[in-house]
Amino acid sequence: MKVYISADMEGITGLVDAEDVQPPGRDYERGRGLMTEDVNAAVRGAYAAGATYVLVNDAHGPMRNLLPDLLDPRALLIKGRPKPMGMIEGLTPDFDAVVCVGFHSRAGTLGVLSHSFMGHEIEDIWLDDQPAGEIGLLHAAAAAYGVPVVALTGDDTACAEARAWDPRIQAFAVKQAKDRFAAQLVPVTESRAGIEQTVTAALTELPNVTPQATHQLTVRWQSASVASHLLAIPGLKKTDDRTITTEGDMLHLYRLFNLYLRVATAVTSNPPYC
């Protein structure tokens, strides 16, 4: 069984603030260790369920967060950026399941460090007219490969968002959101045990997925300048000064969306999201 792990940071055990997840934050280095140990718990869970191959993609911010020397040696690691497929770089139809570790809820929700990809710059995303964030887009892109997302860890709002997309996802909350930068934490030892057990349980019976042929992706930006620049890409339409939309197969849209992020970063210098 081949298992793919996409690892974000905002939903990692014990982390609640930008200082925890953004270099050069005063607690960022400690956050990297906590992130690595949450991923290790997921790797242990995967191998306990019978995995024979585990690939981990560092999917947060600079994508150089996980500590290779502390990562479970049974897992392979994709590190760094840019990556054409961003948070699902390296995922192929050969994988049996996707596990999401350390995820957060979409922009506009009262979840810990909630945002959608770029923090301030993306106000809203809709996939087929349904509000979406990183969880929803990743779920749809994995389905386009024919690979199910089976487990997710993060705060309680991220877990609820994942189950809303697919009730079959087994989610484990490592903290309960109190506000955007505050949470009640699950004790570290208990959290890692819960991650491991959740991943093992999720991999014991894999669901089937049926990819949708065509999707519509709509993004509303904070800046009209970003939308204006993106209109140079063929096939994009503007619905108002800050909103662009396009249609296509999900893998094309996911790759295209990662191009949006690079254009938006160049236009705005990607200010901190808090």
From TrEMBL:
In terms of superkingdom, the source organism counts as: Bacteria
Q: Which CDD domains match?
A: DAP_dppA_1
Q: Which SUPFAM superfamilies did the record assign?
A: Dipeptide transport protein
Please give the start and end residues of each transmembrane region.
none
Q: What is this protein called?
A: M55 family metallopeptidase
